[in-house]
Amino acid sequence: MKPNNSIKTNNLPPWDEFQKMVQGIWEREYYTNHGPLVVDLENRIENLLGVKNAVCMTNSSIALMIAIKALDINKKVLIPSFSHLNIAQSVEWAGVEAEFGSIKNDSFVIDPKGIQAETNENIELVIAVNDFGMVSEIDELEELARQKNFRLIFVSDSFFGENYKEKKFGHFGDIEIFSFNESQLINGADGACICTSDNLLADKLRNIRSSYGAVKKVPIPYTGNGRMSEIQAGLSLLSLDNFENKRNEVLKRKNEFNTIVEKTEGVSIYNSINVCCNFILVLNCVKLGINLKDVTHKLKLINKHIELFKFYGVEIYSPYKRKSFPKNSLIDSSIGLPSNITSEEFNEVVSILTQNIK
Predict the structure, then answer these.
(1) Which parts of the chain register pLDDT below 70?
(2) Domain-by-domain residue ranges, the chain?
(3) pLDDT of 138
(4) Answer CATH for 15-241 from 3.40.640.10, 1.20.910.10, 3.90.226.10, 3.40.50.10540
(5) Tell me: domain 243-353, CATH 3.90.1150.10, correct?
(6) Angle of helix 343-353 versus helix 243-262 axis, rounded to 10
(7) Mind giving me the DSSP string for 116-131?
């Protein structure tokens, strides 16, 4: 049955283009194992970002797991105390222990000053997350990695195609990972991409992912089923075809949203100047007369990708708790809005948040 096009998120391709892409896969009878669409996608990403190696995977959690194994990490990994559960789970799956690093008080990014104090000979890898318009202090982190001899991974999902100091995201750290989840501008049905300038590291990534697509055979601990399917690659390519238009649409909507919240008591947009496909609403819950827990269900019904940050923070997930940090006030007073939120959905969100204001 043909889907109802009256309900359409902004990161889905037109139905006829999707049908044409799937028809090609059907005719070729090539569905996975580094097929022609995956090869095309990796080449397109390398050209767009100007990176040496783009290695596509089935999802971002698998990508992070494989990246940790490719880096041959055997000791502890430092991750931000504000990070999604899947970061800690990927680290633990890879057979190493996750330590939580402190975050900057005015944002959710990992604090370089904390790294200075928290890293030691047992910390072999630091994972920094760039998200919700908040960028880590990349230069300082890269310098710390050189000084203290640890490896560095950036997770930069919502900054795909953007620049940091006139340099494209994808060039930072030993490895940079992008999710192609449906909530992102590049919708690859939960696919992902790893970028690296290290050719040997890229060879390890490709061999661990599977032997298909491996440029050079290199020693690896084992192989994993991290292959991106052809339909994931096809969806990603369709997103790339319309990337600039979708990016401009997001920027236009964010300007509209800024205008709305400027007139709304108790609601503001954090860091909205940054070019980033998702963003955060900061709330004065006392002034709004709400408890975020009480409106969670209503907000999720509007758009399932709205984040209430219940999957974030060291205080919440005791299985991964190593030490306590002062809780960042943004965690309890913010909601994250995805790139695919429409103007209608945004207005519904604001209406729910302000329902008690007279």
Answers:
(1) 1-10, 271-275, 310-329, 358
(2) 15-241, 243-353
(3) 95
(4) 3.40.640.10
(5) yes
(6) 30
(7) HHH--TTEEEEEEE-B
